[in-house]
Amino acid sequence: MTLRDPAVRRGALADSLAGAGGVALPPPRRADPGAVVLDFLRKTMTIAEWEVRKLRHDPTDIITRTVQPMLWLLVFGEVFTRIHAIPTGHQSYLEFMAPGILAQSVLFLSIFYGIAIIWERDLGVIHKFLASPTPRTALVLGKALSAGARALPQAAIIYVLALLLGVRMNWNPLALAGVFAMIILGAACFSTFSVIIACLLKSRERVMGIGQVLTMPLFFASNAIYPITIMPAWLQVVARANPLSYEVDALRTMMVTGSTSVIGLGTDFVVMILVTSLLVGLGARLYPRVIQ
Length: 292
What we know:
Blueprint: H1 6-19, H2 33-52, H3 60-65, H4 67-83, H5 93-110, H6 114-123, H7 125-131, H8 136-164, H9 173-201, H10 204-220, H11 233-240, H12 243-255, H13 265-286
Helix pairs in contact: 2-8, 4-5, 5-8, 5-9, 5-12, 6-9, 8-9, 8-13, 9-10, 9-12, 9-13, 12-13
């Protein structure tokens, strides 16, 4: 230890004051863990609110992103409901498919979220973030939560459309709260994954290309539009390693009346929380690399 160490300097100053007849400096106060957590949450929500505020400047983004899921429900869902090509048990295919299309909408919205990080870097915003005392984890988590908030209006539109098409929706308040939570988790998971890609690739074109490559495999290698049980054995392994499968299973269980979880609702939430937490931690470590 040297005199450059703040603790050593503080101790030396206290000794000198005591020796000179002065008053010794009080020991440094320990930070209250509760206050630290509250401060972290406040900074996280500030970042999330700042990101969501952008929607007021470009609300058309929400409307344009609902076109694709609407086409899936109106065309693909209606056709396959009539031909009974995919076994869905006591449910109609449209009821089976509607939660999967909601999850698809969340995925497509979130997987390109990293492009915004590149824009912020070019505008110098990220440099200001990194120079601030805001923890890197709060920065990444705040952006992840904002992606979930962006997905909620799309979820409301898909709910209304599914209801008009005759899907028996579950209006239990606890089920609605669970759907809300799973949408936030799903958007946070895939948006943080996109942020990690942006921190590694550092180019809008590369992030866009990787996002386009990943969306279809993630969607089709899940239980969004057909049950896992009818997949080949090797694809079942991939589907069970795919976070989207757990999101779809939870949404289907809580969103449609009479649905039961194939994987287990508790397992769905545990897996999504663990995967999202892991990605947020990794994203916080890689976040400064985007400007290097």
